[in-house]
Structure formats: structure tokens, C-alpha cells
């Protein structure tokens, strides 16, 4: 509310991300969608009373689920072919708001303070936008041309951002005045300018860039996501008669009983897999390969490991390195450690140099020392794939 007038925020998220090659609003960066992050900044502005997300037709339920828990009422409506169509639909969904803020879903770094300043300026002037004063020298050229046609006085140049704010009646009239030409406008303030209305400039934020190209996606990712992640894995299996003893994908024939388990009980692969899942924030082995699922019965754990590396890769991670310690009275692991490294590395799609395998006997203490079973401890470091 500003002076008793209700403030609504429109998240323009109806685009298809042609230039980025991906629907930017649905990209998950730093654990949340770009849409949610953008909406969160506006929801956190104390002046904003409600929000509407304008999304590609059919995505409305997804948007409502994604934007749950922002602490303000949220609606979702279908966008249109042009940005202006989307914004118009958003405006129609806020009939009780005397003031509206419009924000690109593709600008996930705006702050609540910027939204507040724009809303206050719009309440006073009728329309306002966040914008950056040009600091580079600005050249002019014909569209698509490489020949400079002149230099523009940069003191007159401001680079438009969002949020942009409006008295709702001012924006509605501007849309009416523009008619079908509204679709040509690349921002909403341009409509008010054309209609002769006042538009106030509010200093924008350098960090409030719009994700437009693939390079912008990487820039946003670098800002939101750690370049590395680490995880820990631990597993225990008892020995059982009649079982093969498989560790790190290598069969230890003639070394006594193997380990009991639903799959091949390769505890070494399991601990590494758990460490990778942990680093990628993907839970644990039991969640992905429950021992109630017949598909995993007797299966080679290297297959599970390959699948896990694939899951991590889907989330933009590659394995940097992993290290596993087996606590095992038997078998003697060291003579076959290199073989195990090679098999594990092959399953993970990395070089054997990135996998380390070692063992300790347990000094005759506890279940390991009594040779009742084996325990495995692993750590994994994941690195952002570029
Ligand atoms: N019909 C459209 C087109 C764009 N937008 C939104 O307007 C913002 C800025 O647009 P842009 O960066 O151009 O996004 P896209 O349209 O998705 O990208 P592109 O133009 O590369 O296809 C984005 O949050 C986008 O979702 C919208 O709501 N409705
Ligand atoms: C509204 C805007 O973000 C201000 O810079 C910009 O004009 C959107 O333009 P696009 O062509 O839709 O990316």
C-alpha cells in the first residue's frame, strides 16, 4: 500500500527465451527458479500487496506451485505473443490495484529497495522506471549496420531496467492510446512516453541485469551457485555365505563370503554414489534405488554409479574427484586398488586419477575387526561443468 492505495506486482514471465535458448523463467539457479527469485524480491517489498505471474499458456499451475510461500497473495495468468500482451493480461488480473509494478522474470537480481523506490516515484509521477546512466560513450548506427552514424551525448542516455511502476489508470490509458502498436514497445514506460505522460527515472542497480543470452545465463549461474560442492557417503554391509565379493566393480574370487545386499552389494561404489548424490543435493542411494525395487536386484553397482553421475551432470556438475576408505579386515584391497579405480572411474566418466581407493583393517576392533562386515566412507567433490 502507498497512501492507502493497493500495489500489485506483475512478473512478466511469458517469454520463450529464444536468444538464451532456454525458457529463462524456469531455469533453476542456486536451488530456485529464476521466476521465483525475481518474484521474491518484489514480494519482499513492503509496499507490494499482491503479485501476478504472467507465464506461457498452460504454465499457470506450475507458476502457482513455484511461487507458493512468498507471503503475499499470488495469481498466475497466461501471457500473450508479445511482451505488451502479457503485461496487459497481468494488468487485467489486478483490478483492485491503483499502482502496479512490472518486473521482468528474467531479472532475478533486483532488490526490494529498488522496487520500493520505483513504486514511490510512480505514485508521485504516474510512471517511473529503474535505469542506469550510461557510462560508456554511446555510438549510433543503422539497425544491423557497422558504420557509425554519430555519437550520442551520453548524459542524455539511460539504460532501462525493471521494475517499472505506474498508476494503473495511466498505464491502461497508455495501452489504449497505443492500440495494436503496443506490441512494438520493448518496455511499458515507452507507452506512457508516447502518450505524453511523465516518466521518472530512478537510479537502477548495476547487478540488476536481464538474462538474455546464454552468456547471461552463465553469469547468473556464477553469481548464484557455488563452483564446487562436496558430499560424504557411508555404507555398511554384513558378510553372507554364497555371495560374490565385489568391491569397486572388481570381483575378489577365493576371498571368502561376499556381502549381503539387494544389488551386488558393492559397498565401495555405494559409498561413492552416496557422496556424489549428497554433493549434488539429490538425497541418497536408498531414494533412487530402493531395495524394494526388483529392477536393482543383483544389478552391478557400477550401473547405479553411472546413473548417479548422469543425474549430477543433468544438474550441471561433473565429478572433480572422490576418495573412498574401506574398513575391511578382509580382503586385502591394496593389490587391486588400481583395478577398482579404473572400473569406478569408467562408470563415473572420469580418469582413474580422479578416484582414490584405500583400506584399513579395523585393528580387530568392532564388527569390522571381527570380520562380520565391511564399512565404506567416501567423499566426493563436484565441479561446475562449463
Ligand atoms: N510474450 C512475452 C515475451 C516476453 N515476456 C517476458 O518479458 C521479459 C523480458 O523479455 P525477454 O528477455 O525478451 O525474454 P524472452 O521473451 O523469454 O526472450 P527472447 O526474446 O530471447 O525470446 C521476460 O521475463 C519474458 O518472460 C513476456 O512476459 N511475454
Ligand atoms: C523491459 C526491458 O527489460 C528494459 O530493459 C527490456 O526492454 C526488455 O526487452 P526484451 O527485448 O523483451 O528483452
From TrEMBL:
<feature type="binding site">
    <location>
        <begin position="289"/>
        <end position="293"/>
    </location>
    <ligand>
        <name>4-CDP-2-C-methyl-D-erythritol 2-phosphate</name>
    </ligand>
</feature>
<feature type="binding site">
    <location>
        <begin position="235"/>
        <end position="237"/>
    </location>
    <ligand>
        <name>4-CDP-2-C-methyl-D-erythritol 2-phosphate</name>
    </ligand>
</feature>
<dbReference type="InterPro" id="IPR003526">
    <property type="entry name" value="MECDP_synthase"/>
</dbReference>
<comment type="pathway">
    <text>Isoprenoid biosynthesis; isopentenyl diphosphate biosynthesis via DXP pathway; isopentenyl diphosphate from 1-deoxy-D-xylulose 5-phosphate: step 2/6.</text>
</comment>
<dbReference type="InterPro" id="IPR034683">
    <property type="entry name" value="IspD/TarI"/>
</dbReference>
<feature type="domain" description="2-C-methyl-D-erythritol 2,4-cyclodiphosphate synthase">
    <location>
        <begin position="230"/>
        <end position="382"/>
    </location>
</feature>
<dbReference type="Pfam" id="PF02542">
    <property type="entry name" value="YgbB"/>
</dbReference>
<feature type="site" description="Transition state stabilizer">
    <location>
        <position position="262"/>
    </location>
</feature>
<keyword id="KW-0548">Nucleotidyltransferase</keyword>
<feature type="binding site">
    <location>
        <begin position="360"/>
        <end position="363"/>
    </location>
    <ligand>
        <name>4-CDP-2-C-methyl-D-erythritol 2-phosphate</name>
    </ligand>
</feature>
<keyword id="KW-0511">Multifunctional enzyme</keyword>
<dbReference type="InterPro" id="IPR018294">
    <property type="entry name" value="ISPD_synthase_CS"/>
</dbReference>
<feature type="site" description="Transition state stabilizer">
    <location>
        <position position="361"/>
    </location>
</feature>
<feature type="binding site">
    <location>
        <position position="237"/>
    </location>
    <ligand>
        <name>a divalent metal cation</name>
    </ligand>
</feature>
<dbReference type="InterPro" id="IPR036571">
    <property type="entry name" value="MECDP_synthase_sf"/>
</dbReference>
<feature type="binding site">
    <location>
        <position position="370"/>
    </location>
    <ligand>
        <name>4-CDP-2-C-methyl-D-erythritol 2-phosphate</name>
    </ligand>
</feature>
<comment type="pathway">
    <text>Isoprenoid biosynthesis; isopentenyl diphosphate biosynthesis via DXP pathway; isopentenyl diphosphate from 1-deoxy-D-xylulose 5-phosphate: step 4/6.</text>
</comment>
<comment type="function">
    <text>Bifunctional enzyme that catalyzes the formation of 4-diphosphocytidyl-2-C-methyl-D-erythritol from CTP and 2-C-methyl-D-erythritol 4-phosphate (MEP) (IspD), and catalyzes the conversion of 4-diphosphocytidyl-2-C-methyl-D-erythritol 2-phosphate (CDP-ME2P) to 2-C-methyl-D-erythritol 2,4-cyclodiphosphate (ME-CPP) with a corresponding release of cytidine 5-monophosphate (CMP) (IspF).</text>
</comment>
<feature type="binding site">
    <location>
        <position position="270"/>
    </location>
    <ligand>
        <name>a divalent metal cation</name>
    </ligand>
</feature>
<keyword id="KW-0456">Lyase</keyword>
<keyword id="KW-0479">Metal-binding</keyword>
<feature type="binding site">
    <location>
        <begin position="284"/>
        <end position="286"/>
    </location>
    <ligand>
        <name>4-CDP-2-C-methyl-D-erythritol 2-phosphate</name>
    </ligand>
</feature>
<feature type="region of interest" description="2-C-methyl-D-erythritol 4-phosphate cytidylyltransferase">
    <location>
        <begin position="1"/>
        <end position="228"/>
    </location>
</feature>
<comment type="similarity">
    <text>In the N-terminal section; belongs to the IspD/TarI cytidylyltransferase family. IspD subfamily.</text>
</comment>
<feature type="site" description="Positions MEP for the nucleophilic attack">
    <location>
        <position position="210"/>
    </location>
</feature>
<comment type="similarity">
    <text>In the C-terminal section; belongs to the IspF family.</text>
</comment>
<feature type="site" description="Transition state stabilizer">
    <location>
        <position position="24"/>
    </location>
</feature>
<feature type="site" description="Transition state stabilizer">
    <location>
        <position position="19"/>
    </location>
</feature>
<feature type="binding site">
    <location>
        <position position="367"/>
    </location>
    <ligand>
        <name>4-CDP-2-C-methyl-D-erythritol 2-phosphate</name>
    </ligand>
</feature>
<protein>
    <recommendedName>
        <fullName>Bifunctional enzyme IspD/IspF</fullName>
        <ecNumber>2.7.7.60</ecNumber>
        <ecNumber>4.6.1.12</ecNumber>
    </recommendedName>
</protein>
<feature type="site" description="Positions MEP for the nucleophilic attack">
    <location>
        <position position="154"/>
    </location>
</feature>
<feature type="binding site">
    <location>
        <begin position="262"/>
        <end position="263"/>
    </location>
    <ligand>
        <name>4-CDP-2-C-methyl-D-erythritol 2-phosphate</name>
    </ligand>
</feature>
<keyword id="KW-0414">Isoprene biosynthesis</keyword>
<feature type="binding site">
    <location>
        <position position="235"/>
    </location>
    <ligand>
        <name>a divalent metal cation</name>
    </ligand>
</feature>
<feature type="region of interest" description="2-C-methyl-D-erythritol 2,4-cyclodiphosphate synthase">
    <location>
        <begin position="229"/>
        <end position="386"/>
    </location>
</feature>
<dbReference type="InterPro" id="IPR029044">
    <property type="entry name" value="Nucleotide-diphossugar_trans"/>
</dbReference>
<dbReference type="Pfam" id="PF01128">
    <property type="entry name" value="IspD"/>
</dbReference>
<dbReference type="InterPro" id="IPR001228">
    <property type="entry name" value="IspD"/>
</dbReference>
<dbReference type="InterPro" id="IPR026596">
    <property type="entry name" value="IspD/F"/>
</dbReference>
<keyword id="KW-0808">Transferase</keyword>
Amino acid at each position: 500500500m502507498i497512501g492507502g492505495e493497493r500495489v500489485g506486482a506483475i512478473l512478466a514471465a511469458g517469454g520463450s527465451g529464444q536468444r538464451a535458448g532456454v525458457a529463462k523463467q524456469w531455469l533453476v539457479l542456486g536451488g530456485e527458479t529464476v521466476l521465483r527469485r525475481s518474484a521474491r524480491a518484489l514480494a519482499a517489498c513492503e509496499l507490494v500487496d499482491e503479485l501476478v505471474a504472467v507465464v506461457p499458456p498452460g504454465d499457470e499451475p506450475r507458476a502457482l506451485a513455484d511461487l507458493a510461500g512468498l507471503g503475499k497473495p499470488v495469481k498466475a495468468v497466461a501471457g500473450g505473443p508479445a511482451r505488451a500482451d502479457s503485461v496487459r493480461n497481468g494488468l487485467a488480473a489486478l483490478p483492485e490495484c491503483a499502482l502496479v509494478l512490472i518486473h521482468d522474470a528474467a531479472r532475478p537480481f533486483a532488490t526490494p529497495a529498488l522496487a520500493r523506490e520505483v513504486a514511490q516515484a510512480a505514485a508521485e509521477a504516474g510512471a517511473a522506471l529503474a535505469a542506469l546512466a550510461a557510462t560508456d560513450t554511446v555510438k549510433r548506427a543503422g539497425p544491423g549496420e557497422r558504420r557509425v552514424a554519430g555519437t550520442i551525448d551520453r548524459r542524455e542516455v539511460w539504460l532501462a531496467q525493471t521494475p517499472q511502476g505506474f498508476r494503473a489508470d495511466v498505464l491502461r490509458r497508455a495501452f489504449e492510446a497505443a492500440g495494436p502498436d503496443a506490441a512494438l514497445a520493448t518496455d511499458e514506460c515507452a507507452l506512457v512516453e508516447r502518450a505524453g505522460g511523465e516518466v521518472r527515472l530512478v537510479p537502477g542497480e548495476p547487478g540488476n541485469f536481464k538474462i538474455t543470452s546464454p552468456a547471461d545465463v552463465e553469469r547468473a549461474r556464477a553469481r548464484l551457485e557455488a563452483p564446487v560442492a562436496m558430499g560424504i557417503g557411508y555404507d555398511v554391509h554384513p558378510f553372507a555365505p554364497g555371495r560374490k565379493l565385489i568391491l569397486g566393480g572388481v570381483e575378489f574370487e577365493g576371498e571368502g563370503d561376499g556381502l549381503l545386499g539387494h544389488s551386488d552389494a558393492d559397498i565401495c561404489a555405494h559409498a561413492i554414489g552416496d557422496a556424489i548424490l549428497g554433493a549434488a543435493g539429490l538425497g541418497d542411494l536408498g531414494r533412487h534405488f530402493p531395495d524394494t525395487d526388483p529392477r536393482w536386484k543383483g544389478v552391478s553397482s557400477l550401473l547405479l554409479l553411472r546413473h548417479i553421475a548422469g543425474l549430477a551432470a543433468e544438474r550441471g556438475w561433473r565429478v572433480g574427484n572422490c576418495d573412498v576408505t574401506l574398513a575391511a579386515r578382509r580382503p586385502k584391497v591394496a593389490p587391486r586398488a588400481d583395478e577398482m579405480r579404473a572400473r569406478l572411474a569408467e562408470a563415473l566418466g572420469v580418469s582413474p586419477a580422479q578416484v582414490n581407493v584405500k583400506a584399513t583393517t579395523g585393528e580387530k576392533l568392532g564388527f569390522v575387526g571381527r570380520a562380520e562386515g565391511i564399512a565404506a566412507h567416501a567423499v566426493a567433490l563436484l565441479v561446475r561443468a562449463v
